[in-house]
Amino acid sequence: MARLLLIEDDLTIRTPLIRALRERGHAVAATSTAMAGLRDALEDRPDLVVLDLGLPDLDGRELLRMLRAVSSVPVIVATARDDETEIVRVLDAGADDYVVKPFTAAQLDARARAVLRRGPAGADAQEAALVVGGLRVDPRARQVTLDGVTVELTPREFDLLHHLAGRPGQVVTKRELLTEVWQIPYGGADKTVDVHLSWLRRKLGENAQQPRYLHTVRGVGVRLEAPAAQP
């Protein structure tokens, strides 16, 4: 099952397409404007974005450029513009594929599966479950267990924990977390990291004063490591 984000303002296209893609086993979220789509793409980290070009607040090609500046998520452009020049432009702007309207859900599904199969080299290794002590982080299922018990996390909390679990014992700076997890290339939002770490600690049954897994290194960042064995 792939997690798809559909950015399409035409309700007569969006509604049946959501239904058809869900029937094919995908988890589908949808929005009707470019800026809402950019927000959802960065916050929810879908596996693939389907992007209409004719959006009410911003041309889809401009949104594609903005998205490519901060994310490598695969993008399929859905467009009624079928001239070769336009298709070349969207591919040059960073689209992974395109479909010309009208198209069927079966066609879009096939293209989505083809794009996702391309994946970056070594993606299978990157998708292996990470284990740190009694903590297990499974990126394929996007599931976390602690001592065998499922921990319910928001998408952002999961991404934060997954990033830290991939670097056990290392001090990870807030700047790195903002860049890699929030896709914010510059600083200025350290409080965002602090708040999410606080929520994450609470769900792992610990706090900053009595850490088990998440250890703050004052003035630097945070380190995730397995708890020391009890004597």
From TrEMBL:
Classification via PROSITE patterns: OMPR_PHOB, RESPONSE_REGULATORY
A GO cellular component annotation in the UniProt record: cytosol
The UniProt record lists the keyword Transcription: yes
Coiled-coil residue windows: none
SMART domains for the chain: REC, Trans_reg_C
DNA-binding region boundaries: 127-226
PANTHER family tied to this protein: DNA-BINDING DUAL TRANSCRIPTIONAL REGULATOR OMPR (PTHR48111:SF4), REGULATOR OF RPOS (PTHR48111)
This protein's name: DNA-binding response OmpR family regulator
Species per Swiss-Prot/TrEMBL record: Micromonospora taraxaci
